[in-house]
Amino acid sequence: MRPPPRTALGLLLLLLLLLPPSGSDAARKPTPCQRCRTLVDKFNQGMANTAKKNFGGGNTAWEEKTLSKYEFSEIRLLEILEGLCESSDFECNQMVEQQEERLEAWWLQLKKKYPDLFEWFCVQTLKVCCSPGTYGPNCSACQGGSERPCSGNGHCNGDGSRQGDGSCQCHMGYQGPLCKDCVGSYFSSLRNETHSICTACDESCKTCSGPTNRDCLECEVGWELVEEACVDVDECAAETPPCGQTQYCENVSGSYTCEECDSTCVGCTGKGPAKCKECVSGYSKEGGQCADIDECSLAERACRRRDENCYNTPGSFVCVCPEGFQEAEDACVPVAEGGEWRSPAQLLGLGTPAACKGELDSSPGRPPCNPAVDPGHQLHRMQTEAQGRGQYPVEVQRAGWKVEAR
């Protein structure tokens, strides 16, 4: 190996290598300081990996003597250098090749005088980084001093690099050029010449002097001052409800939410059919909640045609002639030759007769019939609208089913 270069040419070539590329790729590429720090970190890791290396000879005395020489040997240095870069990492390998002599000089001659490789290599020699707490071309001290930048409550812009302006980017709750002042929703729990601690106010406070709702200087929106403390405003208890007619109000800390009433309700005071003010058509109060009216079981016949079957549906009913019969003016009559029987599924808009053969099932969330689906098909839910036929036609809205290819 050759002695370390003394001309500026080698340093210039390295700086060109370390400089980030121009254009859109620059934001994704590491900075010169980051590249140098990564190389130093890998070098230090290589030193750790090769420390107290066992030669496997079994001769302890010989190993101790050999290891004392190996610790500062060129053999160990070469092992460290070989492990710095992946074979596919061109930039890393090129940088190691450019700086091999400098690293060798540090290893053999300067290591004891400059034990911190990062400080010697990246800060003093290549001048692409600064020591912690300093920034910029001349490594000036950050705001608040290099020992405790930004009072320990923020980040110094450019800290440790040759970039930035040294200004403070304060952590949450802090403000000011040195990050020593508290923002409005925080109060100062400790402050002296070198330290400042800001603590969050209670959620009810817009500004405060302490941690509880009794320390508020001003209440937050959605809270009001009651007996020298900020308490939650119950918007749901207002004389004019804030929610729509088909919604109910739920109070939450500092605000409220509007939730939809149950589908069986006409107006409600809370969640579920038991909280309905009134019931929609086809439902009535039963056991304290809105339940479906079984029109087919009422004393007064729901279906007016002779021989017509009544099928109850959620909120309504449907009248269907038996299989083999069709509707006439006032009765179900045999289907004429070439005619088509319309199944309950058809009348409910549930698909083809093949989709539904059997009794209707009004259980919520289940198919309204016992399906007989052709192989390769399946039942899928869909929203349907059908026209029930009773003494007065009623529009039915329910979850329907249809046959669909798999």
Can you put this structure into words, describing what you see?
This protein is an alpha+beta fold and 406 residues long. It folds into five domains: 8-129, no CATH class; 149-198, Laminin (Ribbon), CATH 2.10.25; 201-232, no CATH class; 234-293, no CATH class; 295-405, no CATH class. The protein is 21% helix and 27% strand. It contains seven helices and 24 strands. The chain has helices at 8-18, 32-50, 60-70, 74-82, 90-110, 117-125, 344-347, and strands at residues 134-135, 140-141, 154-156, 168-170, 174-175, 181-182, 186-191, 196-200, 205-208, 216-219, 223-226, 229-232, 247-252, 255-260, 265-268, 276-279, 283-286, 289-292, 309-313, 316-320, 325-327, 332-334, 377-388, 394-405. The strands form twelve sheets. Strands 1-2 form a two-stranded antiparallel ribbon. The chain has a two-stranded antiparallel ribbon with strand order 3-4. Strand 15 and strand 16 form a beta hairpin. Helix 1 (8-18) packs across helix 5 (90-110), helix 2 (32-50) crosses helix 4 and helix 2 (32-50) packs antiparallel against helix 6. It is elongated and about 115 Å long. Residues 1-13, 56-60 and 349-406 have low confidence and may be disordered.
Give a short synopsis of this structure.
The protein is an alpha+beta fold. It has helices at 8-18, 32-50, 60-70, 74-82, 90-110, 117-125, 344-347, and strands at 134-135, 140-141, 154-156, 168-170, 174-175, 181-182, 186-191, 196-200, 205-208, 216-219, 223-226, 229-232, 247-252, 255-260, 265-268, 276-279, 283-286, 289-292, 309-313, 316-320, 325-327, 332-334, 377-388, 394-405.
